[in-house]
Amino acid sequence: MATVNGPLFSLDASGTIARTAVYAKWKGRNYVRSHAVPANPQTDLQRSRRALIQFLSRAWSGLSALQQALWKPLASENNYSPFNAYTAYNSNRWTQGLGPQITPNNQEGNPGTFLSEMAAGGVGRATYFYQMNAANKNDDWGIFVAVHASLAVTPDLTKVKAGAVTIADGTQYRIDVLNLAPGNYKLAAYPFVKSGSVRNASTVFDVTVT
To answer: Which of 34, 55, 96, 140 has the highest count of CB atoms within 10 angstroms of its CB?
Structure first.
């Protein structure tokens, strides 16, 4: 990385030029670096983390003002907004194979009750259906649906083929795991509570993706 003065014959510059060079500023200094394309921008773990971020974004608006305020101390420590603190904290937990927490160090861990669940394969996708008892949702907050390429079924996010996360809203729901290559897979759903504890799958389904 080289620092530059007056980049592109101007006082400042940023962005990518012809997919060759990237101009930016760091700590008040302009610099330029070569443009790099990730070798595989669609890895299983990357897809899994994007599914989590989508879940966290949807779930944030459902948090009470008090729950959102509990993220402020962590936000102040890192000069983040409360939402960014909540997202960064839970993304870090996710990459360690831990479920997200609705508030820092949350202790709400009473699991809910499933009434029924099933799964099916389709064109480029696997679909999971579930129904919960709304009266017995308890502390369930979300469900991670994992599609595995082998019998090694585990909630460990570094070993899943693909995944989707949804809010456990106490009703019948459908979750699609998309962009799967044709083949035979194992599908399992792992509910997690507000404290971040992830339960083992109650059923492992065989699905065929065409």
So the answer is: 140
Compute the distance between CA of residue 177 and CA of residue 58 in angstroms, rounded to an integer.
18
Instruction: Tell me if residue 134 falls in helix, strand or coil.
Output: helix
Task: Look at the chain and report how many structural domains it folds into.
Answer: 2
User: Is the domain of 25 the same as that of 62?
Assistant: no
Q: Which ranges of the chain have pLDDT less than 70?
A: 1-42, 44, 151-162
29-34 sheet: strands from edge to edge: 2-3, 29-34, 21-26, 15-17
Give pTM, 2 decimals: 0.73
CA separation, residue 46 to residues 32, 49, 50, 107, 134 (Å): 27, 5, 6, 28, 32
Q: Per residue in 67-114, pLDDT tens?
A: 999 999 999 998 889 999 999 999 998 888 888 999 999 999 888 877
What is the DSSP track for 148-198?
A: ESSS---S-GGG-SEEEEEE--SSEEEEEE-SPPSEEEEEEEEEEETT--B
* Domain co-membership, 17 together with 60: no
One-letter amino acid of 118: M
Q: CB–CB of 102/63 below 8 Å?
A: yes
CA dihedral for 149, 150, 151, 156, sign (positive or negative): negative
Residue 112's domain is classified under what CATH number? 2.60.40.10
Residue 147 per-residue DSSP state: E
